[in-house]
Amino acid sequence: xxxxxxxxxxxxxxxxxxxxxxxxGITAIITKAPKSAAGRGCAYCVxxxxxxxxxxxxxxxDAGLGPPRVLxxxxxxxxxxxxx
Amino acid sequence: xxxxxxxxxxxxxxGRVIRAVSGAVTRLxxxxxxxxxxxxxxxxxxxNCRMLLADYFNVPxxxxxxxxxxxxxxxxxxxxxxxxxxxxxxxSGYEHNSVIRPLNxxxxxxxxxxxxxxxxxxxxxxxxxxxxxxxxxxxxxxxNAFGFILPILEIAExxxxxxxxxxxxxxxxxxxxxLDFKRLGAAFVAMPxxxxxxxPQGTGVxxxxxxxxxxxxxxxxxxxxxxxxxxxLPDRLESGTHNAAxxxxxxxxxxxxxxKPAGAIFRHEKxxxxxxxxxxxxxxxxxxxxxxxxxxxTCILSVCCEQMTNDALAEKLDAADICVRAGLxxxxxxxxxxxxxxxxxxxxxxxxxNTPKEAAVTAEAVKRILSDA
Lengths: 84, 373
Description:
The complex is a heterodimer of chains A (84) and B (373). Chain A has 84 residues and is of the alpha+beta class.
């Protein structure tokens, strides 16, 4: 199943994001960001299902967390950044 | 045992605090160091505490709540973030050494806005006179030696007018008096977790509203390829492993306080303090430092004994199973202001768990010690 990773600069932000998403009914699991996508190293992200992406980004913004970097994780595990 | 030294550390904790600390030791790992369940349980525990503190002190975002080891640690971060050698820094006449020593260590020019004990108007006026041209202002909310409540809202307004960043030492007020971070507009507010917030030792909190400089550098579990600390809170100021067990206890201490009606703990402790003051005030040879108006003092009571040293009185009270503290209470500045620098005082300080009977028994014990002297 395709899913997206919404990256956060720290664990605290990932937790805040996860809770904001849960409040809107979106299951959002916190994971470490893949090394290839971590940028400065050791970042966190919330994992959301493909069908929740638009609503999740909107919830990020509503919670004052700003637009996240969005990564698409394909069936084969490949990770690609998704543009605006 | 009667424990009347809560201004140092509250010894009696709600049962929920003890259970939380005990459970955390075997259940919580290190947050930000993995995504396994014990690490995430720790992360959840810590975020819960941040959110609760942000709610209680009206902090705009939980990220602005930083965990420290104690109030001294937080004050050192705040002072080193804002003060450079030679800077003119205004302080009250009632500061603890946790403020004075860091300022001296940096080489700041310390200006004391002095005022007589319990005179809030004079304190406000002193700050009005001293603030122009200051680089920073550091003020305790409540004197740890005398319980004097400084007019912190008025001082915050003056700082705002003069565009002077304000650091507040809330060591003796957090958990007792209302403290609205947003309304105060302070750059930083530092507090311990182990006094009136009823958490365990080794916990402290720094509320951050200004630009901060890390006091320590190290691992944060974020931005790991960077050679310097992250530029975002709370990671910027929280390097190394968190005191997860302590923070678990602090969460439950705060939840206990929040379960009580607003002001109830303060009223309870203040009633005990003034009941004791009234009894001690009748004893010859004892100077009781009490605010006659009752509006400028919390639940800390200092006395000075003429018949014996204050240390001797504290020792005799200890022998009677009553725990108090004698000396300068790490606050020579406050004793200089009150005229007690030579001898210090004996300090009685209360917690939600003290009772009217304990205040009465303590007064009787002092009376007996003085009559036997």
